[in-house]
Amino acid sequence: MADIGELVAALPDKSLLLLDDDAPLRTRLGRALEQRGFEVTLCASVAEAMTTLKSNAPAHAVLDMRLEDGSGLKVVEAVRDARADAKVIMLTGYGNIATAVAAVKAGVVDYLSKPADADDVARALLAAKDAAPAPPENPMSADRVRWEHIQRVYEMCGHNVSETARRLNMHRRTLQRILAKRAPR
Fold it and tell me: Which residues form the Response regulatory domain (predicted)?
């Protein structure tokens, strides 16, 4: 298979909208996609993305599902209205079947879990319309998936250990020990 950079260079329109409210992830993924040849526009909120779409209809979009000011599904519809041929990828840290189905019905071509690798995102954007996505080359371990889930719930609870422990149905001290350790590989 050809190099991702070469495939992106062959695209007639390399414009890409990246919407995520997680600033470090947005910056890192945006930079990585620029290095692969995409012309990236970064947005931090649904409102900012809607404003950007009025002036610039991108050929590609990578959108977060859950944002502080709304759902990425709303932006999928706006991208489709602005440019019907745009390829849209949905990123989510809260994957479930219902949201995946809703995203696909809205016109998303792929649905990736966070943290997504830039190469996986680029491959999904470059995949042929009817091609089945290849399985990830190095999927996260079960320990890493568990750790990521705990971190998301911890952030949703405003870094409140007691509330996080209650929602995860685990003892507070056990949660504190998990949070004190480094992330598993």
Answer: 15-129
